[in-house]
Amino acid sequence: MRFTFCPLFSGSSGNALFIGAGDTRILIDAGMPGKAVEGALREIGVLPETLNGIAVTHEHSDHVKGVGILSRKYHVPIYANERTWNAMARTVGQVDPRNRRIVEDEEDFYIGDLALYPFSIPHDAADPVGYRVFFGGRSVATATDMGYVKKSVLKILGGTDVLLLESNHDPELLMRNPHYSLYLKQRILGNHGHLSNAASAEALLTLYESGVRQVMLGHLSGENNTPELALNTAVERLGQAGVRLNEDIGLGVAWRDRVSRKFEID
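Structure (tokenized):
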């Protein structure tokens, strides 16, 4: 049976990641309006009513905007740790108690055929996590919204078959942005903000050395980054270490406003 991984949206305006295997179909986050998520799912041949769960990384609206409506409309269980549940309650709205599932950081849990491992990440949220998801002997993961990449996170992500890794901003573009306050710039650049292109590229090199061979760069800022800049920064750093693009590692960019590449892992 195939293991499917497809970023539906990835960026500061909204995030949703589809993962499926066997008879199980899940979302990691649903940070766009419900109709947008429904449309993206149908675009990849998945009916929204067949979803088995939504696993939430943290409470920011670009990750949970559509979670409540999808759960209420299709009776989909929502999985999150307790502090995230408390923090997202107002945004998500009323949820059927039967669909309110509390999970623990660093402890595996199952949704159908998939095993999920939530791991702690440094971000300015109540209790943010990334997820590594297992099916058989294969795994995929998402690691975005991080101020920096902890050694423990690098270890957890080692050997992942397909990874969505944050490459949020270029610091020079960010500091020149006239629309952002100094406070917001400092928040993004801080240890609980977002990964820069350069920091993402350094992490990517370490992950390559651990066996990761397919990566999508995600959660790009719409104002402080471009897909070309994120990709070029990563390619340049990998090249300095002798890692060849498309020969040694596959690398792409997850789109902010539309469905990205769909991976089918045999």
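The chain has nine helices and 14 strands. The chain has a mean pLDDT of 97.
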